[in-house]
Write a structure and sequence with these properties.
The chain is of the alpha/beta class. It folds into two domains: 24-242, Thiamin diphosphate (ThDP)-binding fold, Pyr/PP domains (Rossmann fold), CATH 3.40.50; 272-439, Pyruvate-ferredoxin oxidoreductase, PFOR, domain III (Pyruvate-ferredoxin Oxidoreductase, domain 3), CATH 3.40.920. Helix content is 37%, strand content 18%. The protein is built from 16 helices and 15 strands. A seven-stranded mixed β-sheet has the order 2-1-3-4-8-7-9, sandwiched between helices. A hairpin with an 8-residue loop joins β11 (301-307) and β12. α1 packs across α6, α13 (383-390) packs across α14 and α13 packs antiparallel against α16. The longest helix has 18 residues, at 238-255. The chain is elongated, with a radius of gyration of 31 Å. The mean pLDDT is 96. Magnesium ion is lined by residues 53, 95-97, 123, 125-127, 134.
Length: 442
């Protein structure tokens, strides 16, 4: 705890809270402020994440950090924040509408036990959009979308979360004198904690259904729903476990990878787009990654984008590689500078692209392939025959060796260095030979 004392976590700069008179959100938000005052957390380490809805208008009134995003998705933002920095106290505020719209996120945060606090301002309708029914609207409840009475049964948010594994769950109302203590308790839980706070939307649900405090309690009773602590089964928190497992294994695995130190020169003065079109099983993707790394050893920026069907070892496999001396902002290639056609599958997939290649493009094609009409300058090469002499699986590396010899983008030795550093020794030896054999085709 720091030396500074915070008498409030709310700022007056924005003005008063924007809720209708008597709205339950007012009490809920003020109680949250009291809970924060009680806990005296460093505001810089607290993030209030809000969903869309009237309740979501609240985050900007706090001096903590805030995040406001798409409707129904606030739990995902909270989880991301907590995973990125488990030291943060993440408080997620949402309405019943958001809880229903993002229902699967509620299930998963509970199941995973990610240490965020979820506060639901449950007023049985979509307040912000004029009082439509939500997943918690009671049966027979009148709303703009259930004008003859709701025929659905309401979702029990707490027991839904508990069924998914929620470690700490509390149901209450905004009339609870201990609301701020309950919220403080929830925030102090190391794992996932949820407070379902029943309340009144005085603009829509309450007047339409003559619902005041008494009727709200009557509703709880009529559904036989208990108030208070409904689950309290602590178990290890997800984000800490995740970080621990990363420290133990992930980090070690990353350290083993060699760094790419620039040790060659390139001849590239603008962004260059290369398309490699072959078949699944021809190592198009992995060879392209090594090829891109080769460019990086020569000081180039590189990107790779792949296209292949969901099936394995059948159909096409295409890779698009961009090299540039500058940072690459956009990874699509409109007019390739080089095109490598290795197999019929690749040509079939890229037929329209080959037909549209500009005259400035050089197309290296396996000599036996049927090609569509193209303006590109075609260079036919014995790729299959050359690869057979080294290894059938090295055909893409053979083709890339030829491209480098012809284009002089960067030395083939840079490509060989990537192969040597990132492949197992036996395969690397074969591929270094394949790259060299490729250069000898021209
Ligand atoms: C994806 C998406 N769907 C619908 C909307 C329209 N919308 C805005 S607020 C809202 C309802 C909010 O209700 P609730 O979450 O219960 O909060 P309340 O306003 O009652 O506090 C809806 C449906 C939206 N903004 N985004
Ligand atoms: S519309 Fe309903 S939920 Fe929204 S501020 Fe008004 S009373 Fe509150
Ligand atoms: Mg609501």
């Amino acid at each position: 705890m720091s030396d500074v004392t915070y008498p409030t976590y709310m700022t007056e700069e924005i003005g008063a809270l924007p809720f209708c008179p008597g709205c339950g959100h007012m009490t809920l938000i003020k109680s949250l402020n009291k809970a924060l005052v009680k806990l005296q957390l460093d505001p810089a380490k607290v993030v209030i994440v809000t969903d869309i809805g009237c309740i979501g208008l609240s985050d900007r009134h706090f001096i903590t950090s805030a995040f406001h995003g798409l409707h129904g998705r606030s739990i995902t933002y909270s989880c991301g924040l907590k995973l990125a920095n488990p030291e943060l106290t993440v408080i997620n505020i949402m309405g019943d509408g958001a809880a229903g719209i993002g229902g699967t996120h509620l299930l998963n945060v509970a199941r995973r036990n990610i240490g965020i606090t979820l506060v639901i301002g449950n007023n049985f309708n979509y307040g912000m959009t004029g009082g439509q029914h939500s997943v918690t609207t009671p049966t027979d409840g009148l709303t703009t979308t259930t004008p003859w009475g709701n025929v659905e049964g309401p979702m029990d948010l707490c027991n839904t979360a508990i069924a998914a594994g929620a470690a700490w769950t509390y149901r209450t109302t905004v009339f609870d004198k201990e609301l701020s203590d309950i919220l403080a308790n929830a925030i102090s839980q190391p794992g996932f904690a949820m407070v379902d706070a029943w309340e009144l939307c005085t603009a829509y649900y309450s007047p339409r259904n003559q619902m005041k405090k008494k009727e709200l309690f009557g509703l709880l009773e009529s559904y036989g729903l208990k108030q208070g602590l409904l689950s309290d089964k602590p178990r290890p928190e997800y984000s800490e476990q995740y970080v621990t497992s990363y420290e133990k294994t992930g980090k070690a695995a990353q350290k083993e990878k060699p760094k790419i130190d620039v040790s060659f020169k390139h001849n590239v003065d603008r962004q260059i787009g290369i398309v490699i079109a072959g078949s699944a099983g021809q190592k198009i993707k992995s060879s392209s990654t090594l090829f891109a790394m080769g460019g990086m050893y020569a000081g180039l920026e590189a990107t790779q984008k792949d296209d292949y069907p969901i099936t394995v070892m059948t159909g096409h496999s295409l890779a698009e590689i961009i090299f540039s001396p500058e940072r690459i902002e956009y990874t699509a290639i409109e007019d390739p500078d080089y095109f490598v056609a290795i197999s019929a599958d690749g040509v079939k997939r890229a037929k329209k692209r080959i037909e549209a290649l500009p005259a400035t493009c050089v197309l290296y094609a396996e000599e036996s392939l049927d090609l569509p009409e193209t303006k590109a300058k075609v260079i036919r090469l014995p790729m299959i025959k050359t690869a057979k002499e080294v290894s059938k699986l090295s055909i893409a590396v053979v083709a890339m060796g030829a491209l480098l010899k012809d284009s002089k983008l960067f030395p083939v030795e840079a490509f060989s260095k990537a192969i040597g550093n990132f492949q197992k020794q036996k395969i690397a030896e074969i591929n270094v030979d394949a790259a060299k054999a490729g250069t000898e085709m021209l």
